[in-house]
Design brief:
There is one protein chain. The chain has 30 helices and 22 strands. The strands form five sheets. Strands 6-5-16-15-14-7-13-10-8-9 form a ten-stranded mixed beta sheet. Helix 11 packs across helix 18 and helix 24 packs across helix 25.
Length: 872
């Protein structure tokens, strides 16, 4: 190898230097130049004054003409100094120094301009050498003062801000002391009489539930938070007496105490509004989501959503008969099924069929090609143990496949599994002698041992277990309950028969009085790491009508579990065999249906585009043929009568079925998605013997008896139906009964129909080709109607194109941005109040122009209803 020359070495060194410190041209250096303004501004001022000094010689103006120019510049400079160095920001001293310096510099500059006009220029310099020398001396002198003021400005600004902060803090302390004195004067006697001697009230906050007091204990005799808990009953009595003149009733459970960050301060929460007394309608417009996100099952007393993390979380729900456990279970089931990456298993030896039948009804009626639930086991204890054994093995197999990952991440193709165990104590305690052999243990295990094993190792596998029982935590879990207890982190307590059940179940809350819970409220402890339980209430999700709709919609994004895991399970393949669910088979056949064939995994026939979280799948109704089969196959059977269809010809059977179906569709289209329930209510309140005030529980019994299909209606479901749009009728109280005045119910139903007259005089529906001109149409539909002007009613328009036409995005935007805008617009149009049907194709989602115009007209007229059928 030849020795490198010096030139080559220098070239390499220059290349390295250029890479580390690249050379810049003159323009780049000028653009990056950032001079020190403390000296740069005086320099620029000297240059401008020097140029202005030669102006009389160039324009032949008299020298005194420069005096107005100098004064005008001085006044402008003074105004600028006042604006940039205001008293509020920099303080009075800095402001005065800047203004005085500007006045002095401006007047001296004005005098210099006049003087320079009387002198003769020296060569190329526009002023004489004498004038130039004076200008430089004055510029240096005043420039030094200017630099000094600018140097001190940041420090002066910081000092002013600090003084202002101190003043604000002092004022805040004074205001806080005044507020504390006022609050203590108002609420102190209630605290002192309850035994909290020396307590003071530091702050007051209004909440949607009532108010919260920040209480400080006595410095000399602290009573700690346990002292507050011990006198909650006395505090409730004191607050009840205090607010009784205002017509507010406060029960013992409506006063709670919670810790703060300081040991001497406590939050005293007083519920004066009893906001949870009314039913909370189930939100039907929730989009498809991921199990990785919190699932909403209701609202807390401040109406914040009860959002529970269910991925890999084990929980327990406790409540006595009639406390609302089934509603909570339905909300949890709906939340899990709304997730595109979760499967729901349900098992139980008691009360299983009433829980699972509404969720499986779309499959039994042939509306879906698969059940909403992934696995149902019961009521034979051994069948439930089979499901738990499969769940245990499934979690073990998935843990073995984790590899480097510490926790399983679910996807639509490989979802998480959430298992709901109804009346768990009936299996874990009463049937403790029933055992099953599992794949990795030589000794058979009973239900309690299986639950302990599942809760111990399945969190990392994305497998969750939620048990519902009437007993406390330890009594409900059997002999291995102590092993499982520490892994059950989610606790929900409804009204119990003994306070011990609630105290044993909630961590760190021995003072809980769960026997005092009313109105189907509950105490929710999302994590055992948080020693607090907040009152809340589940959404009203009960009755076959409502659950059927939720189950139908959520079946669209179900794919099933991966075969590579399910093929290794011992009992999974036969989970839908008739022999395993004889009680459910009897109900299905009694209602006129045929037990369906086992489902196949993979994309659903309803939708194969629901993997994207955030997509709202429109609720769909029954197909015409399937609805005909459902109606004609169920007449008279619920009452044990002989089937009259057996004596009818095929033509008569079809004609009668068509008539019944048309009648049903007419009612539903008039009254909305709860049409059957509303029609039964209307028949009941129009009866001659209907009372002026109709209690909710009485109305539920009446319409249950009137229901030809034998479905059960409860006070909660009737309340939810009337409280939802378009009826918007809240429940009221008369005496000790909760219900509605008959006349108010009639008026609400008439208003919901859209006509002041009775049913025979309905508002005529607009034609499909009738535009929505001249009507008040809400956005974004109004902008869409304008954008599709000139198009035929039978044309199809893509949601992505509509998003561009109404300005939600642009054609030049990135593909992901345009897809997001189109998805958001489609979500708005399929939800209330428009209820448009989006047709999904390979090239995108489309809307029919005629349906857009019809929706606009009906929305503006207030007659728009959620359609029964929304076919692709």
């Amino acid at each position: 190898m030849s020795t490198p020359t010096k030139e080559r070495v220098r070239a390499v060194l220059r290349a390295v230097e250029d890479e580390v410190h690249p050379r810049r041209n003159l323009a780049e250096r000028i653009s990056d130049w950032n001079p020190d303004r403390r000296w740069y501004h005086p320099y620029v001022a000297i240059m401008w004054l020097c140029a202005l000094g030669g102006l009389p010689h160039w324009t032949h103006l008299p020298p005194w003409a420069m005096a107005p120019v100098g004064l005008a510049g001085t006044i402008s400079a003074v105004m600028s100094a006042k604006r940039h160095y205001d008293t509020y920001t920099y303080g009075d001293d800095q402001h005065q120094h800047a203004v005085r310096l500007t006045w002095a510099a401006g007047l001296m500059a004005t005098a210099w301009l006049v003087f320079a006009g009387y002198t003769k220029p020296a060569g190329f310099i526009p002023v004489s050498l004498t004038a130039l020398g004076l200008l430089i001396i004055g510029g240096v002198a005043f420039g030094s003062f200017y630099a000094h003021i600018r140097t001190k400005a940041p420090k002066a600004k910081a000092e002013v801000e600090q003084r202002r902060t101190e003043i604000i803090e002092q004022q805040a302390e004074v205001q806080a002391e005044k507020l504390a004195a006022t609050l203590t004067e108002k609420f102190g006697p209630v605290l002192w009489r309850a035994g909290l001697t020396g307590a003071s009230v530091r702050d007051y906050k209004d909440t949607r539930a009532g108010f919260t007091l920040l209480v400080e204990d006595d410095e000399t005799k602290p009573f700690e938070i346990d002292g507050v808990r011990s006198v909650l009953g006395k505090l409730a009595s004191g607050f009840a007496r205090m607010y009784e003149p205002e017509g507010v009733q406060i029960a013992g459970h409506q006063v709670r105490v919670e810790e703060t960050g300081s040991a001497h301060l406590f939050d005293l929460l007083v519920s004066t509004k009893n906001a949870l007394r009314e039913s909370i309608p189930y939100p039907m417009d929730k989009p498809v989501m991921s199990i990785k996100q919190p699932v909403e099952i209701g609202v807390y007393e401040d109406f914040q959503p009860i959002a529970l993390s269910l991925l890999g979380v084990h929980g327990l729900g406790i409540g006595a008969t009639g406390s609302g456990k089934t509603v909570v279970e339905n909300n949890i089931a709906a939340g899990v099924l709304r997730c595109c990456d979760a499967e729901l298993w349900i098992g139980g030896v008691k009360k299983l069929n009433p829980l699972v039948y509404p969720w499986l009804k779309p499959w039994f009626t042939g509306q879906t090609d698969r059940p909403a639930l992934g696995y149902v086991a019961g009521t034979d204890p051994y069948e439930v143990l089979k499901m738990l054994a499969d769940l245990y093995k499934f979690a073990t197999l998935r843990n073995d496949d984790l590899g480097e990952e510490s926790n399983f991440v679910p996807t639509p193709e490989d979802p998480a599994v959430f298992c709901l165990l109804e009346e768990a104590s009936a299996l874990l305690v009463e049937q403790a002698d029933v055992k099953i052999k599992v794949f990795d243990s030589p000794k058979p295990m009973n239900g309690s041992a299986l639950v302990a094993a599942i809760t111990r190792m399945s969190r990392s596998a994305g497998v969750s277990l939620f048990m519902v029982t009437q007993e406390g935590l330890m009594e409900a879990l059997g002999v291995y309950g102590s092993n499982a207890k520490r892994n059950i982190t989610l606790r929900i307590v409804l009204k119990t028969t003994t306070d011990y059940d609630g105290q044993e179940s909630l961590v760190g809350l021995s003072h809980v009085r769960s026997t005092r819970l009313t109105d189907k409220t509950m105490l929710v402890q999302p994590s055992v790491e948080m020693p607090r339980a907040i009152p809340g209430k589940a959404y009203v999700l009960d009755g076959a009508d409502l659950i059927y709709q939720v189950a139908y919609r959520n079946t669209a994004h179900r794919r099933g579990l991966p075969e590579k895991l399910t093929s290794q399970l011992d009992y999974y393949a036969d989970r839908w065999s008739r022999e395993r669910l004889p009680g459910l088979v009897r109900i299905v056949e009694k209602n006129g249906f045929t037990w369906p064939d086992p489902p196949a995994d993979g994309p659903s026939q309803l939708s194969d585009e629901c993997e994207t979280v955030g997509v709202v799948v429109p609720l769909r109704g029954h197909d015409r043929d399937d609805r005909l089969r459902e109606i004609t196959g169920r007449d008279g059977e619920m009452n044990g009568e002989d089937d009259p269809d057996m004596n009818m010809t095929a033509g008569e059977l079809e004609a009668r079925g068509m008539a019944k179906m048309d009648s049903y569709l007419a009612k539903v289209q008039k009254y909305g998605m709860a049409g059957k329930t509303i029609s039964l209510i209307l028949d009941a309140i129009n009866a001659n013997n209907a009372p002026a005030f109709i209690p909710a529980d009485l109305l539920a019994e009446i319409i249950t008896d009137k229901d030809q299909e034998g479905e059960r209606h409860t006070a909660e479901s009737v309340t939810a139906a009337l409280a939802a749009r378009p009826w918007n009728l809240p429940i009221t109280t008369s005496g000790n009964q909760r219900g509605w005045p008959k006349d108010a119910m009639k008026q609400a139903i008439r208003d919901g129909i859209g006509t002041p007259d009775e049913d025979d005089e309905a508002v005529p529906q607009p034609r499909r080709d009738q535009p929505a001109q001249g009507l008040s149409v809400p956005q974004p539909l109004a902008a869409i109607v304008e954008a599709v002007q000139g198009r035929r009613d039978d044309e199809w328009v893509r949601t992505g194109d509509l998003a561009v036409l109404i300005g939600r995005t642009t054609e030049n935007a990135e593909k992901a941005v345009r897809q997001q805008a189109a998805a958001k617009l489609g979500k708005e149009l399929t939800a209330a109040p428009f209820y448009l049907t989006v047709t999904r194709r390979a090239e995108g989602s489309f809307l029919l122009v005629g349906s857009i115009r019809q929706a606009a007209t009906e929305t503006a007229a207030g007659t728009r209803r959620p359609p029964l059928d929304q076919a692709n």
